[in-house]
Amino acid sequence: MCASGPTWRDSLSKRIILDNGAYEIKYSAASELKPQKIYNAVGKDKKTRAVYAGNKLFEELENGHSNMQITYPIIRGLLHDSDLETVIWKQIFSKFKKMEERASCLALTLPPVLPDIVQNRLAEIVFEDFEFDGLFMSSTHSMIREAAMIEHPVNLGGGAPSQQCEYVVDSGFSYTYGVPFFNGRPLKYAATRIDVGGKLLTNLLNEIISYKEINLQGETHLVNDIKEQLCYVSTSFNEQLEICKQMLNPIAKEYVLPDYKNNKRGQIRDPVVFQQLPPDQEQINTNTNQRAPQLQAIKISNERFSVPEVLFTPQDIGINEAGLPEMIQQSVNKCPKVMERQLYQNIIVSGGNAMFTGFRDRLYQDMQSLKPDGSEVQIYELQNPITSAWKGLRQFCQNKNNFEEYVVTRKEYQEEGFRVLKKFYL
């Protein structure tokens, strides 16, 4: 049955964007200004066996529902359970009013190096399960680069239009991946990955807190909030360790656990200031003028910077991999020598871990000792590292004159099969 009305070829509202992250998916039509987000996970209550998916699961976790077995469709950056991912995608597509899949094109971000079996399964879901008319696939890194070109049009490039080189780092939930680019094309043979991402950092913080303070093994969502509110990257690691040994430690903070009645999110307080408060100020609820119950608090000290430190020195916790600066160096060394200087000058950082305070400064500091003689290091941050790939994908869908050239149509897929996918994957 043919679709009536406008199609993706002439309507931006028919180009559906999915930045398919392992932790959350950012999605919209290409005509929209901001993305919506959905938690990319499915949870099952261990007692009632009730199943929650996407943002419904996220709401349950926000309300303190911790007795949950959570499963992510994407594990270590690759699609692991396509059936669960289909459940999440159905929720997303239901948000688009009057969307006709057979008149629409799905624009999708994927890891830069993707096994054929995963790429083929995704094509099956898109063309056979949902019956989209078109599929555009791009690496997350290619779209991060697009976003960087929007935000830093004057600075990035640095060479002749035919000799532009950039190096894109995406440090997200599952991994940290670096990809060099030449003239807008990813050099996948030089892509380098370390298996340190936000999930590992959250799990590490959880283990430390559960050992030193209180058992939070079933509270990953809560620990992730502690990480996001309190952790940062240090540019003087050893010096800050010494500060943490002081009696009055200015680095230490307390995370007051939510009671899920008055507070659904934990609050940060300074333990030194709090201990000096008179009892009346400490315990009186100003709204009700009644004595408030004492809430449990977790003290976080050197963990604030020692946990994100693993991004730079994973050997500290027994991971036999290079840190982020060395990963970039190894990747650049795989490229032609003539590209070296520009790659160091055009480093773009994105992903959730780039949100850590001090991330850029520490990377810049460490790269100084690794750069070749005569080279300069420039590191470009993006306005929102979480949505940068979505932003680049939206830009590509809107403004590229040759967008259609990169789209695999359902007809081409039916006629040529999986082999048609490779020549279109950016």
From TrEMBL:
UniProt-annotated location(s): Cytoplasm
Catalytic activity: ATP + H2O = ADP + phosphate + H(+)
Pfam families, per database record: Actin
Alphabetic keyword roster: Cytoplasm
UniProt GO cellular component terms: cytoplasm; nucleus
InterPro entries, alphabetized: Actin (IPR004000), ATPase_NBD (IPR043129)
SMART domains, A to Z: ACTIN
Source taxon at top rank: Eukaryota
UniProt-listed PANTHER family: ACTIN
Identification of the protein by name: Uncharacterized protein
Organism: Stylonychia lemnae (Ciliate)
